[in-house]
Write a structure and sequence with these properties.
The complex is a heterodimer of chains A (477) and B (297).
Chain A (H helix, E strand, L loop, with lengths): L17 H4 L12 H8 L11 H5 L6 H10 L4 H15 L3 H7 L12 H4 L5 H15 L1 H6 L11 E5 L3 H12 L3 E5 L8 H4 L8 H13 L3 E3 L10 H7 L2 E4 L5 E2 L12 E3 H10 L17 E5 L3 H12 L3 E5 L11 H10 L2 E3 L2 E9 L2 E16 L5 E13 L2 E4 L3 E2 L2 H7 L22 E3 L2 H4 L4 H25 L1
Helix pairs in contact in A: 2-4, 2-8, 4-5, 5-8, 6-8, 10-19, 14-15, 15-16
Chain B lengths: L2 H4 L7 E8 L2 E7 L1 H4 L7 E5 L7 E3 L1 E5 L4 E7 L3 H9 L8 E6 L10 E7 L3 H13 L3 E9 L6 H7 L2 E7 L7 H22 L4 E5 L2 H14 L3 E4 L15 E4 L2 E4 H4 L2 E3 L5 H8 L3 H18 L1
Parallel strand pairs in B: 8-9, 8-11, 9-10, 11-12
Antiparallel strand pairs in B: 1-2, 2-6, 3-4, 3-7, 5-6, 12-15, 13-14
Helix pairs in contact in B: 3-10, 6-7
The chains are: A alpha/beta (477), B alpha/beta (297).
């Protein structure tokens, strides 16, 4: 047999032109159509699943070569191809339209892809997204869902706290195993950071909502407006349910402890993005929630949250500068999103640490920064260390958005007496069980601020552990 | 059927709605999850309309068995106006999240003066009532415009003494100028009461400017004072920091660390500056809503 001919370059996905997209919150990347998806899938050299490095790189271990094979096997029957591919994906991940869009694939499944050694790695994220989107548009996902609905009789009841990526995944996995699951969510919509944090131009809320429709169809109940720790306690949940999963995330913003932090028009990125995404303040006054964005916005930080905030502010008509205390190569945001931000006209200033917010009539008017310089030495995360230079620079701004990170919310930990680390993250054992027997936890509540897909991986792992915990309890009862 | 399931069939139904005073609307809401847990000093976040905003409101009365809470709103801007105009008995609120915030400190302080300016008195009511029941000697003071008196009978029954001070609305003056008269009367009355009697604690709910003005007087007498703060809120669960205030030199989030704080530690001027954050947009929302109402009729 002839060696397969390697196609080194990936099939590109079209994107909306910059001048069009910066005027609205519509999705930037348009994704593949079937023909180009098959073409891209055909580049995969089909490593055996037991070796495939892409599967190992995926935190929920989707059978990637398997779904790509399903796509190209039925190249003349798109509906069949997509249905088979989706079945493979759903075995491990029930939210592919989300993960295909927001995962940092370049650090996960696509990083170890063998094709990446000779050319571009397979565009796994965009292919996963294509399968989910096509299935949704054609109603194929509805058809397939029936195969995943399990008998719930007598298996057990599980309460999931928090409807973000960790909780949603845990709930869906448990529902597939036949458990009766109830999710308790503090906000008025499910989705967690997918709903309030990630903007429409990266993850359209309509797409998210159809993914969330699966919950109901698989028999998962969602109770919104429930603040566990206040509305109901973990102890009360344990009286009603066989087990509890805590997926409350890391939603409390870190603010800078420097003079002027209480000035008007200084937002945490969480507040800014919640107003924009969850409350649709960009449609004010059609929507009632206001947002005040001036002409010159400074975003402090360089993670994905900072990119999302900067690109949102830009779409509200402002001139936006990202100020970061380290250098360009140290930015933690996804490469694709940094590129999008640059194309859209976001400016970047590096090696600047804010030391004071300057105001006028109670409103912010400028930010004073200390200039930093990089050292050769690297820190534990491999980033170059920085040191202050003693020189200052002041940049004008009428709005500031702080995106320097998040920490876990204290309500739940304080109300329930969990063993927690000094940073507020919950202590768990190797099965993700907390210090309270029968209560499991995962995602940012345990890791601190991490990624959507790691949270989903934890949700899935916890679902397995909960299944075993309940089974063994029932066997010994 | 499980009784627990039954109470969830009709969420947040408006069981009663009535205008109890000028611009003051009483809503009795079916919200068993809140009614069962709420304690004096705690609040809820309400979203009434699909394109609506989230606003903080305070349960004034509740019944854990029957599963209702009473909310009293002052018509102040678009959302409260729209609720008054469009919601009917039998309708449902979309979201009632809570209880939120910390309960008021419940202990024997001794003689307490609990002050409510305008509709702030509705937040004073559950706290004052509970303090009185705990054995405190509570005097409530309500200062407001003449047509805006609320909960007079209820307070007279609940606490040791209820003092009502009303200020007429001068039709020749605009609302902000009229409000200055309330502030003036408030400050005068508090001074008079503190001169006449010795209190162990002063507590106040009302506009931040008035809270500060009253605090300045209380400080002269050296009486401990607590205040329920009213910064802007979005989620009410500690995830955004919109409600941040400086207390004792530290940044606190009112929704999870408060809403009650030691008045001596609050950075009042900063809080006053922050409360005017969205005034322009609030006015625009209200004007466009009024225009739409006129156009529609």
């Amino acid at each position: 047999m002839a060696r397969p001919k390697l196609i080194k370059e990936r099939v590109p996905t079209p994107e909306r032109p910059v001048e069009e997209r910066i005027k609205s919150f519509v999705e930037v990347n348009l994704g593949y159509d079937f023909a180009s998806a098959v073409k891209e899938a055909e580049r995969c050299i089909q490593c055996p699943p037991e070796y495939a490095p892409c599967i190992k790189g995926c935190p929920v271990h989707i059978n990637i070569p398997g779904f790509l094979k399903a796509l190209r096997e039925n190249a003349d029957n798109p509906d069949e191809a997509v249905k088979n591919a989706l079945r493979v994906i759903w075995n491990d991940n029930t939210l592919p339209a989300v993960t295909g869009r927001v995962c940092p694939q370049e650090e996960q499944c696509e990083a170890p892809c063998v094709m990446g050694k000779v050319g571009d790695p397979i565009n796994i994220g965009k292919l996963e997204r294509f399968v989910a989107d096509y299935a949704r548009e054609k109603g194929i996902d509805e058809e397939l869902l029936g195969e995943f609905i399990a008998e719930t009789d007598g298996k057990g009841k599980v309460a999931v706290v928090g409807a973000g990526p960790a909780g949603l995944t845990c709930a869906l996995e448990l529902a597939k195993l036949g458990y009766k699951v109830t999710i308790f969510e503090a906000l008025h919509e499910a989705g967690g950071v997918l709903m309030y944090g990630i903007p429409e131009f990266r993850l359209p809320k309509e797409v998210l909502k159809t993914e969330l429709d699966k919950l109901e169809k698989l028999g998962v109940e969602v109770k919104t407006n429930y603040i566990v720790g206040k509305t109901v306690t973990v102890e009360e949940l344990l009286q009603e349910y066989d087990a509890v999963f805590i997926g409350t995330g890391a939603g409390t913003p870190k603010l800078l402890n420097i003079p002027g932090i209480l000035l008007d028009r200084i937002y945490s990125a969480n507040e800014f993005l919640t107003r924009v995404n969850l409350m649709k303040a960009y449609l004010f006054p059609e929507y009632d929630t206001p947002i005040a964005v001036g002409k010159k916005v400074i975003v402090i930080g360089a993670g994905n949250t900072a990119m999302d905030a900067a690109r949102s502010a830009l779409r509200l008509g402002a001139e936006v500068t990202i100020a970061y205390r380290r250098g360009r190569e140290d930015m933690t945001a996804r490469i694709e999103e940094i590129a999008h931000a640059e194309e859209e006209g976001v400016k970047f200033e590096f090696f600047l640490t804010p030391v004071e917010f300057l105001g006028e009539n109670g409103k912010v008017k400028a930010v004073k920064f200390m200039k930093m310089r990089p050292l050769e030495e690297r820190d534990s995360r491999g980033k170059r260390k920085i040191e202050p230079t003693g020189e200052y620079v002041t940049l004008e701004a009428d709005t500031v958005i702080i995106a320097i990170g998040l920490e876990p919310n204290r309500i739940l930990v304080e109300a329930s007496g969990f063993e927690a680390n000094p940073d507020g993250t919950l202590v768990v054992d190797e099965n993700l069980m907390t210090s309270i027997p029968g209560v499991f936890a995962g995602g940012d509540a345990v890791r601190g601020e991490a990624t959507v897909i790691l949270a989903m991986g934890d949700g899935k792992k916890a679902a397995k552990a909960i299944d075993e915990y309940i089974k063994s309890r029932k066997a010994n009862a | 059927m499980n009784p627990c399931t039954e109470v969830f069939i009709v969420p947040y139904k408006i069981l009663e709605k009535k205008e109890i005073a000028m611009r003051n609307i009483w809503y009795k809401i079916h919200a068993p999850h809140v009614a069962k847990k709420v304690k004096p000093g705690q609040f809820v976040i309400v979203r009434a309309f699909k394109n609506g905003e989230r606003i903080p409101l305070t349960p004034v009365m509740w019944d854990p068995e029957q599963g209702w809470v009473v909310l009293i709103t002052f018509i102040r801007g678009k959302t409260t106006a729209r609720m008054a105009a469009e919601l009917k008995e039998g309708d449902e609120l979309l979201n009632v999240a809570g209880p939120l915030g910390n309960p008021a400190e419940m202990k024997k302080f001794g003689k307490i003066l609990a002050i409510g300016a305008y509709t702030g008195i509705v937040e004073v009511y559950p706290i004052a009532k509970a303090w009185q029941e705990l054995g405190n000697e509570v005097t409530t003071l309500h200062v407001t415009f003449e047509p805006m008196v609320v909960l007079k009978d209820e307070l007279e029954e609940a606490v040791g003494r209820h003092v009502l001070e009303t200020v007429p609305i001068d039709p020749n003056l605009d609302f902000p100028t009229n409000m200055k008269n309330v502030t003036k009367r408030l400050v005068e009355k508090v001074r008079e009461m503190l001169e006449q009697e010795k209190y162990d604690l002063v507590f106040m709910v009302g506009p931040t400017g008035d809270q500060k003005a009253v605090f300045e007087v209380v400080k002269e007498f050296g009486v401990p004072m607590k205040a329920d703060l009213h910064p802007i809120m979005v989620d009410g669960t500690g995830m955004c920091g919109a409600c941040r205030v400086t207390v004792g030199g530290e940044v606190k989030f009112a929704c999870i660390d408060g809403p009650e704080f030691d008045a001596y530690k609050v950075a009042w001027d900063e809080l006053i500056a922050r409360s005017g954050y969205y005034t322009d947009m609030e006015q625009r929302a209200m004007q466009e809503y009024m225009k739409a109402l006129e156009g529609g009729e």
